[in-house]
Amino acid sequence: MFASLKPYTPPKCILGVGAFTKAVVEGLQGKAAPLGRGKITVNMLDAFIAERVKELTKGRQTPVTTKPVTVPDFPVAVR
C-alpha cells in the first residue's frame, strides 16, 4: 500500500503523522473491523485506509492498493 500524493499534504503538526500512516495505525487498532469483529483482513484495512485518508486530507490524497488476484484476502491483525 502507498499513498498517491497530489500537490497538497496536510501539516504534520495537525495530524502528528502523515495521513496514510495515521489511517494505517487507526485501522490496525481496530477501526477497520466492522462491528468490532476480532480480525482485520487486508481488504478491510484497504477499504478503511482509502476512506480515512480522503477524510483526513479533505479529498486531496487518494491511497492506491494493488494486490494480485491470486492472493486471497487474509488477516493482518487479530484482536
What topology emerges from the helices and strands here?
Layout: E1 2-5, H1 12-15, H2 19-31, E2 39-41, H3 42-56, E3 61-64, E4 75-78
Antiparallel strand pairs: 1-3, 2-4
Overview of the molecule:
- Helix content is 41%, strand content 19%.
- The chain has 79 residues and is an alpha+beta fold.
- Helix 2 crosses helix 3.
- The strands form two sheets. It has a two-stranded antiparallel sheet with strand order 1-3.
- The mean pLDDT is 84.
Q: What keyword list fits this structure?
A:
single chain; 79 residues; alpha+beta; two-stranded antiparallel ribbon; two-stranded antiparallel sheet; 3 helices
In short:
This protein has 79 residues and is an alpha+beta fold. The chain has helices spanning 12-15, 19-31, 42-56; strands at 2-5, 39-41, 61-64, 75-78.
Distance between the termini: 22 Å
Count of DSSP H/I helices = 3
Strand content: 15-25%
> Which overall shape is indicated by the principal axes computed on the Cα atoms?
globular
Mean pLDDT: 84
Helix/strand order, N-terminal first: EHHEHEE
The strand line-up of the biggest sheet is 1-3
Largest sheet: 2 strands, antiparallel
Rg on CA atoms, Å? 13 Å
Percent of residues in helical segments? Answer: 40-55%
